[in-house]
Every structure is written in C-alpha cells, then in structure tokens.
Amino acid sequence: MKILPYQPDQSGMAYSVGVTLDRFIKLKQSDFPFASGELSQLLRDIALAAKIVNRETNRAGLANIGGAFGQINVQGEEQQKLDVIANIRFMRALSKGGEVCAIVSEEEDAVIDLQNNSGKYVVAIDPLDGSSNIDVNISIGTIFSIYRRKTPIGSPIQEEDIMQPGSEQVAAGYVLYGSSTMLVYTTGFGVNGFTYEASLGEFFLSHPNIQAPEDGKIYSINEGLEKHWSLGVKEYIDFCKSKGYSARYIGSLVADFHRNLLKGGIYLYPGTQKNPSGKLRLLYEANALAFIAEQAGAKATDGSQRILEIQPTSLHQRTPLFIGSDTMVDEVLRLIAKSNQSISAFNL
C-alpha cells in the first residue's frame, strides 16, 4: 500500500476555496488587535440576517410578499413589502447581537439608538437595494457599512459617532441575491466573496482576494436621463460608444457593481439638472461600495473628490457616483474636468 504525505497548497493562496465564512472570519480576527471578537460576531450577525432575507426573497412569489407595501419611505420612494421585511430582519439581528450601539437604515427617518451604550459599532445599511425588481425576478442586494463609535464606550451615542466619512469604515460589504446568493466584504485587508450553499446553510469562500481589472469594456448608466447630464458625462458616454464598449444596466446597484467589479467596467450615477446631488445615498450605499472598490484596486469618486473623503452632513445625504475600473474612472474624471474648465473660460 502506497502512502503519500500531505502536501500543503503551494499556490500562494492563503485560504482555499471551500472555507466557510464563519471559519474565515475566525482566521482573520488577528487583523484587529483593538477588537476582542465583537466585529467578527457582528459580521456573523449580518450573515445570519442575509440567510433569512435570502429565504424570504426566494419564496416571495409563493408567500405573496412581493409588490408595494403601500407606504412612502423617507427617500420619497414607495416601500416594497420585502423592504419592510428585510429592514426588520437586519434590525433584529443587529440589536440582539450586542455589538452595535446605533443603526442608520434607508428605511428609517432617524438614527435608531439601540440603547446599548456598551456597543462599539455603528452600522449603516440599505436592507434591500433594488427591491422593486423582485416582481420581475431581477437580482437585488443588501449593502452595509460598519464604523467604530468615536465617543467613549458606556456613554450615549452622539452625532460624531454617526457622521463619519467613509475612510473611517472598519468593514463594509454587500449581499447579492441572484442566481446564487453571494456575500462580499472587506475589513480593509482585501476583498473576499462567499457563495451561499442553501442545502448546508453556509456561505463558502468562492472568490478569494478579488481584484478588479484595471480597465474594462462595460459601462452602466441610466441613459434615459441623458438630456439632464453634464457635458463631461455626455462626452464620456460618447467615448465609450466610440470604443465599442457594452452598455449593461440592470437597475440594481449591487448587481451592476458586482458584475463590473469582477469583469471590469464603470458604474455611473451622475447628478442631473433636476437632482445635482444624484440619487444614491452616501452613508449606506456609496461609502460601502467605494471601500470595497478601493480594496479591490478600483476607484470611486463623486466627479470631483474621492467618495471616502466626503464628510457627511445629513443622514440621508445623496451623492453622484462614478465607480469602477481605475482607467475608466480616470477617463471620466478627465472629461468632466475638461468640460468644467471650458465652461469656466466661457463664463469669463
């Protein structure tokens, strides 16, 4: 009988595909000397809520929980039934875990103070982005940001705990509910993606150390708003068309971002004449995706400055967003700056 000694993986991958999310989080705890397990548990709480939301999403048609809820949220948007359900699921998971002192949610008018003054973290979350697409079976997602509170542990939360720029995030991620369900997150040490195996009830590492292509051939923008764009944005889209790039726009932010992150591309939601600040929210959409993008080697900007450097001034603050492959973001910035200079010269 021939016996072979075990040979460790020599590929250079620190963690092989097949590692569970829970085990991966435990292995990475040493990255956070300031924490004593709370951040790891918080990530597990989010993963648990994501599993529940995944179940609710998959049975939405059978359980009659698709469609509109009949109320308008703080954004002026009609709430979907699953918006409300997802918000409840994440609120329960985050409040029961004990690590969080406050939550900012797209579905809530104000900050939710959990009355847990011993909690170290603040979570900003969009519980179910793109939920209006559920009725037509299109991918949707959850987006989250995690911040360490600024005020001393044991004291009531203050505005400074909430109004932090994206550069202060200690973790961020998204869950994509689609043909497969994926959780992608970063803690500032690279980006890793986990695919959910429903029969086992576990997320498994499927996309280790995600690196965004430096360039791409996909652009994602709502071209129905073209007449309201600035000259620089119009010139960039013309540039994309002249290069033969592919237009891919799902209308679910997480799905569009995820595709471009893996394949190379750029997502654009610029300001318009009617809404100069754009549509996307800074605290719980743009910041999280910008952190992930930068950790994967991509870029994110509002057209004039890095998204992660923006100091928030209001809870549901909106921002233009240009996010994706490094070369593509640089080109759109060049054309925006060029058009702004031309307009300034003309006004002189």
UniProtKB/TrEMBL annotation:
Mg(2+) 2 binds at D126, D129, E285. Residues 213-335 form the Fructose-1-6-bisphosphatase class 1 C-terminal domain. GO terms for cellular component: cytosol. The keyword Hydrolase applies. Binds 2 magnesium ions per subunit. The keyword Metal-binding applies. Its cofactor is Mg(2+). Its EC number is 3.1.3.11. One of its GO terms (biological process) is gluconeogenesis. InterPro entries: FBPase_C_dom, FBPase_class-1, FBPase_N, FBPtase. Substrate binds at D129, G130, S131, S132, N222, Y249, Y267, L268, Y269, K279. Its main location: cytoplasm. Keywords: Carbohydrate metabolism, Cytoplasm, Hydrolase, Magnesium, Metal-binding. Belongs to the FBPase class 1 family. This is Fructose-1,6-bisphosphatase class 1. The lineage of its organism: Bacteria, Pseudomonadati, Bacteroidota, Cytophagia, Cytophagales.
